[in-house]
Amino acid sequence: MSFTTDPSSLPPAGADALVHSRRVAEHIAERMTAADGWLSFAEYMQLALYAPGLGYYSAGARKFGAAGDFVTAPMISPLFARCCARRFIDWLDLQSAREILEFGPGTGQFAADALGLLSGSGSPLRRYRLLEVSADLRERQQQTLASTASGDVELDWLDSLPNDFAGVVFANEILDALPCERFVVRGGELWRLGVGLASGAVSAARFEWRMRPANGARVDDDDFRMIAARLFPNEGVNEKRSVVTNLPEGYCGEWHPSLTAWFAALAAAMDRGTVLIVDYGLPRSQLLHPQRMTGSLRCHYRHQAHGDPFLHPGLCDITAWVDFTAVAEAAMQAGFQISGFTTQAGFLLGAGIDRELAAATTGLEPADPRHIALARGARTLLLPGEMGEAVKCMLLTRDAASGTPSAPLLDSAFSLQDLRASLWG
Ligand SMILES: C[S@@+](CC[C@H](N)C(=O)[O-])C[C@H]1O[C@@H](n2cnc3c(N)ncnc32)[C@H](O)[C@@H]1O
Questions:
Q1: Most CB contacts within 10 A, which of 36, 150, 176, 188?
Q2: Which residue out of 70, 72, 133 has the highest number of ligand 1 atoms within 8 Å of its CB and is therefore the one to mutate?
Q3: Which candidate, 106, 41, 131, 70, places its Cα nearest to that of 313?
Q4: From ligand 1's centre to the CA of 259, what distance in Å?
């Protein structure tokens, strides 16, 4: 997807869409006014993406696919789901478990393709659970799965985490959609960046970045200092209690404040099992590298990426790359073991994408459009310049009763390229 710094080059929004976006912006502005004119960026992002009936994921925006704003791996190729499903069978067998829980299943395409393999005879799977926060997407998933033969497998939509879950948990592009916070370097100090109403804006609901607090004066921000100390353990604190840094002036970065709570809730819901996290991201030392001056905040609108989260709130997706060191820290604190970390290309090659491609194209001429589409999809998933390197896969295991992992220490899909050491480098 191409990135533009010029919002005027984006496709124009329709009149109805603009009316909707204005309602979203007014809702956010009301919250901001009630909070003395300043919201943290995570609060802003939560409202822009998930405000009930208004946010990007909670209202009717098309979101996925050619008529939407972005595509994800399950939509690029069925080979992605098939590779994952093959590993799920082994992990379920190892744990004598029978359930899969998918977070944020999007269009339901992953579940449909995975069930093609998992509902066959001999599969240990008995129940496929879908945890979806958006009513609009749940309806779409139900439509997608209505025509899927699920055999003996029961489909079960959830509003919240279950109790005593045992099995495989799958989350593709979920963590990068969780609300993030942002910081900036000014005068050699780290500052939290939040959101205020734009001064002099024609519309009452235009937003702009504001260092905390709204008037720019420094206040004690102990919460931020604690986070900064974790993100940059070698930086110091000066006599004014500001975090000082050697990062270049103007440097921006992001962090996801809800990771600890997210993994604690998952651990509390899980007796034993395996968690596969797939997301855009890097180990911390690479993500918060001095050369990555502008951070990784990305907005998606009609298949163009841009960097302005205040443009058309409610019509654009907003994401930030995941700090996989923070994911590992949060997961370990919650009682998970880090059983694998690799690139998407490493995972898919280790999981046998070449065999899946050969099987799916058997009997098709190379010039057959279905053959071409499958080969092209595999390239997009694997190539370093596409998703192969930018997307990472992490395998977590947990057994609450014994405290020991119930999956082998290094799964075959993670052994081709074991990157776990890079998390702590
Ligand atoms: C970028 S989409 C990915 C969808 C899908 N997994 C895929 O690969 O196509 C992000 C999804 O995360 C969901 N989501 C966000 N926060 C969530 C949460 N706390 N629990 C479950 N799903 C969540 C959104 O509703 C949305 O469906």
A1: 176
A2: 133
A3: 41
A4: 14
> Residue-wise over 175-202: b if at least 16 C-beta within 10 A, else e?
bbbbbbbbbbbeeebbbbbbbbbbeeee
> Residue 174: CB within 6 Å of ligand 1?
yes
On the question of pLDDT at 6 being above 80, the answer is no
Ligand 1 lined by 57 (C-beta under 6 Å): yes
Does residue 134 line the site of ligand 1, with CB under 6 A?
yes
Distance 134 CA to ligand 1 centre (A): 9
Question: Which residue is closest in CA terms to ligand 1's atom 14?
Answer: 104
Distance from residue 132's CA to the centre of ligand 1 (Å): 7
| Residue of the CA atom closest to atom 9 of ligand 1 | 106
Our measurement of the distance from residue 85's CA atom to the centroid of its chain's CA atoms, rounded to an integer in Å, reads 20
Res. 400: pLDDT tops 80: no
List 236's β-bridge partners, or say none. Answer: 244
Distance 104 CA to ligand 1 centre (A): 3
Neighbouring-strand partners of residue 280: 391
Task: Please list, in sequence order, all residues whose beta carbon lies within 8 angstroms of the beta carbon of residue 342, skipping any fewer than 6 positions away.
Answer: 350, 392, 393, 413, 414, 416, 417, 418, 419
152-185 per-position pLDDT tens digit = 899 999 999 999 999 999 999 999 999 999 999 9
Does 50 map to a domain? Answer: yes
**Structural domain boundaries, residue 40:** 2-54+181-254
What is the Å distance from ligand 1's center to 64 Cα?
11
Q: Count H helices and E strands in the chain, helices first.
A: 14, 19
Measured distance between the N- and C-terminal CA atoms of the chain, rounded to whole angstroms: 30
Is position 158 within any domain?
A: no
Maximum Cα–Cα distance across the chain: 72
Q: What is the DSSP letter of 293?
A: T
pLDDT digits (tens, 9 = 90+) for 49-90: 999 999 999 887 777 777 788 899 999 999 999 999 999 999
* Domain total of the chain: 1
Is residue 35 in some structural domain? yes
